[in-house]
Amino acid sequence: MPPKAIIAPSILSADFANLGAACEDVFKWNASWIHIDVMDGHFVPNMTFGAPVVTKIRSRVERPKVADGKGTFDCHMMIAEPMKWVKDFQEAGCDLYCFHYEAAINSTAAENPADHSEQKTNPKELISCIHKNGMRAGIAIKPGTEVYVLWDILDSSDKVEVPDMVLVMTVHPGFGGQKFMASELPKVKALRERYPNLNIEVDGGLSEGTVDQAAEAGANVIVAGSAVFGAKDPADVISRLREAVDRRRSQL
After folding, report:
1. What is the pTM for the complete model shown?
2. What is the chain's percent helix, strand, coil content, to nearest 5?
3. What pLDDT is attached to residue 193?
4. What pLDDT, in 10s, does the model give residues 61-113?
5. In Å, how far are 21, 188, 207 from 161, measured between CA atoms?
6. Which residues are catalytic?
7. What DSSP line would sit under 70-135, residue for residue?
């Protein structure tokens, strides 16, 4: 049976004027994680949260008692230099640091924001760095990136280089509220067939109307922003998203 259903509301759709309270509400609604979209204005054109914001909201949410447990801060790092920010986000309270494959193959090995390095990094080195800093590691791919680029990483014989989660984007990263791209679901299916115990996350356009497709493909971690925060009854939406994943799990 695939891993448990995890519902991770994206606070990109929350009320920024009341962000701490919104993060507390997420868990009153029985969500599993909080999804934090970090954008730097370089890897993607938009800008959102930095480590100081994560520090502040961490004080409002209890740390998870077990790996991937309730209260996990799932930081989706849509940034050009992911290695530079690992330590800062660990200190801020990030639990799962999910970087983009496309950034990792084009970024440097500098390990602090003020540092400069001519040396390049790579996904395996970055995953190892994240694990050595005490966090779970995720790797994300954009539409347009073939899923097979992840096989060598996921099949590494050195477990410190293997990610704990793969995120398949079902929209182009950078902005909330986009239309769900079902064209990306074959990537999810291929991942689930090869790695039955892997946490596979989907992000972008997920709602009650699209979650069944994602669950059928094999996703177990569902990111939803406007579908949750824009709902009259967010707890009911979260329940329905979880039920969709659980229905699929029960069939396997």
Report:
1. 0.97
2. 40, 20, 40
3. 97
4. 999 999 999 999 999 999 999 999 999 999 999 999 999 999 999 999 999 99
5. 36, 21, 33
6. 37, 203
7. TTEEEEEEE-S-GGGGHHHHHHHT-SEEEEEHHHHTTSB---STT---SSB--HHHHHHHHHHTT-
